[in-house]
Amino acid sequence: MTTAPAPHPAPTRNGARTLLHALVGAGVDVCFANPGTSEMYAVAALDDEPGMRGILCLFEGVATGAADGYGRMTGRPACTLLHTGPGLANGLANLHNARRARTPLVNVVGDHARFHKPYDSPLESDIEGFADPVSGWVRRVRDARALAAETAEAVARARDGQVTTLIVPADLTWESAAPTAAYAAEEPAGGTAVLAGAEAAARALGSGEPAAILLGGAATRARGLRAAARIAAATGARLLCESFPARLERGGGLPVAERLAYLPESADAQLAGVRHLVLAGAASPVTFFGYPGRSSDLVPEGCEVHPLDGPTVQALEALADALAPHIPVPVPPAPARPVPPAPARPTLPTGPLTAATAGAAIGALLPEAAIVVDEANTSGLHLHAATAGAPRHDWLTLTGGAIGQGLPVATGAAVACPDRPVVCLEADGSAMYTLQALWTQAREQLNVTTVVFDNAAYAILGLELRKAAPDAATPRAGALLDLSSPRLDFVALAEGMGVPAARATTAEEFTALLRRALTEPGPFLIDCVVPSAV
Amino acid sequence: MTTAPAPHPAPTRNGARTLLHALVGAGVDVCFANPGTSEMYAVAALDDEPGMRGILCLFEGVATGAADGYGRMTGRPACTLLHTGPGLANGLANLHNARRARTPLVNVVGDHARFHKPYDSPLESDIEGFADPVSGWVRRVRDARALAAETAEAVARARDGQVTTLIVPADLTWESAAPTAAYAAEEPAGGTAVLAGAEAAARALGSGEPAAILLGGAATRARGLRAAARIAAATGARLLCESFPARLERGGGLPVAERLAYLPESADAQLAGVRHLVLAGAASPVTFFGYPGRSSDLVPEGCEVHPLDGPTVQALEALADALAPHIPVPVPPAPARPVPPAPARPTLPTGPLTAATAGAAIGALLPEAAIVVDEANTSGLHLHAATAGAPRHDWLTLTGGAIGQGLPVATGAAVACPDRPVVCLEADGSAMYTLQALWTQAREQLNVTTVVFDNAAYAILGLELRKAAPDAATPRAGALLDLSSPRLDFVALAEGMGVPAARATTAEEFTALLRRALTEPGPFLIDCVVPSAV
User: Fold this and answer.
1) Which InterPro entries does the record associate with it (chains A, B) (predicted)?
2) Prediction ipTM score
């Protein structure tokens, strides 16, 4: 049972103020907004609710992606403020990613006044239809008296790790509403983890047969990694993590879990020979796409899969206590197999600028406590290895495959953690989906260093085209994957939105710019001109 | 009954080639594309189907908006090629606008292979859920043998003036498919218009009481305008047209229909005193939003509404034949009330650059056969009057209220009509939604002159905020409508995407740049720095 703060005097508060007050009372204090007419009373109410910070985004996909980044880093929801169905629609792709990341996130979507709905005016649309595919909970407020309680419920449901959508008709924002009501939030399940349900996993890990633990969700944070490492040290099991973790803590001596590769052939190689695969917060591994003549299931033939039930981190710790009772934290070298030495940081590169040399520079210079947002796609193939020896940092990835996530997530992460440097590693094609995020970074003076890997192509699709048409000349198809005509000028684009920027064409130039960007406060963009890595 | 062209030899054709062949066979020869892996066989098939022109867009909202512009100008559908649910989601806002414009448009949305669907891989989503709110017809292809026929049906249904969405699983594109099948298209209803159902309208118009005809849909084209003008000349009825016509033909002496104002107070004034309102292809007029204390219905009290049934243009012509049998085309001055003299073109302005002086320059210089795309919002208040005396042109508006339509629609209109100059009049805030359209304009060397009315604000929302909070100081709310910190540099943004651009700060500079842009081929952007017009 949570208790709401004492309400303001009810007679002076309209629905818009009630809405903001209920959000703030439930612990939501940042609103990524791209409002319109139907949200104008909510905007006006910002001046009565100093506890809510409104952050303007020039496109809704920026707002929803920023709320995703904020939620991933704080563990609690930000809200968005979006304008009717089309406004929500513009934010859906990044809500799809947030759903896959299990991010707590509350959408507040304004709608026409209830009396206006029957007139089918131009902006009338099926908001629930747009919201349902990405939301775990959708509610249309039907009564001003319910506004406070339903707002609180939207927040509480989001805290379960999902996207919620609250649709608020405009007339409810200008009517007077009941004061904020207490909302009986369900207590999260207690922390008394037991081994129940994990016996099969324990037997498999203790069998001596080749085993791997695939970590996902909460298990990719420090506590889960440490528990998994104890198990690995005692049993020789390999540690893997899902291909696209929402938030992977790493570096600074944290146990390393190898990410499962995106390309099916590489993932096959990683999993070859595994007899037991324990799933800790991750789904059973599948290919990203289906391909002719191959299975979508990445689990090798003859491999048994053992999912851990219940709260993942507690289950891992119970398993570690059972299998490795004498192994303390930090984990010493395993008796069963040699632990590789802690990865070294790369030396600073010289010469040509490539995805590999840029990765080396990033690995060499990544500062303590950095938040890395990775939407580098093909140019990012080297990044994970290059940064394995870096100081402690977080790694946020493209969880749902809907590109255009990186710049917005970096924006939200920087709002969430103003004292930490954010490094956004971004592919050129993906950058162009939601480039408007740069303007919000400039406006809020967020400490984000964006590296655009500028290879002038949808390189990942070139790879796929060669699979689809291995024997044919495909000049017309190839042209549809080519970003070189005209070449995008990311320096001009960034400066056009108020973010200082510069271009690097050699490893030395890149290193110098990266040093400068990491030292200076505020946003900076490096146009990192590289050949395609694939 | 339409007959498909002779199929290629079936054994060599996979589903992707069948798809493109069926599209081309049904008359679709332009594809605005932002494909991904699941569409790669369709992309590869472009090299086997020279009749289909693929045009790459850097964001799906550009692709769908361009298809809208293309469909409005040609009367037949272009297709889009979009990547699974999130790709479609990014295009939904402009599909909402296309739905409101009743534009023929076919979305081809790739999905995972059927065998891959059960694995819930990251991009898995509810594509039908996203498509339904904007589509008049949605079909998921379930069998390669049905692909050709269902593609043909998607095109035929779109030709009825709606958005259709065909969802194509990837495996159907790589499997071999049956050759293109003939599709039994329904014949459109015949052209034998009668006065049936229009008797009430005829009586009302002949009554001598104050009457107005509100034109929309097909009636805003030349033929409908001429029929309506004959009626007006005979009866004294006023000619109005809906606030946001999909395509209004005007200028060069065409009869003038006054656009119903966006702001409710202005629309009230336009309709005051009207006793009979005849609806010709338009819905009964309503306010765009609902507001406290006023009705959403714009029909004045005591006014009778008379909708015309059936094909609108034919109904208007039948009405004209009945009411004005002796009035020929072109329409002479009306006996019942004086016809205003043909509007004059403004003189070239000098001095400060404002929305009004920029409008005067556009009115003075708009070339013959121009296609004007109008998303100028508050800065566009003067534009319609200023261009009333211009040579014959088309005027395309924001039909669904989902901003971010202008640049994409201009792009598609320029592809549709390569011999006509396109002038895109664009608000700064709206421009930032789908600015990526500029890159496609540069790549395809489209003859589009974009004027960005750069007042550094969501000015229209400032107007609404003053209504919502008339008596309060709202610095925090006001900040959320302000685009001046940092100021967007539209010259840098355009040049960053390969479109030459320049800034105008005086009327003389603007006039010189506009002359230059209209004279030179290819795209050009003018950053037109103006104070807020409201």
Assistant:
1) THDP-binding (IPR029061), Thiamin_PyroP_enz_TPP-bd_dom (IPR012001), TPP_enz (IPR045229), TPP_enzyme_TPP-bd (IPR011766)
2) 0.92
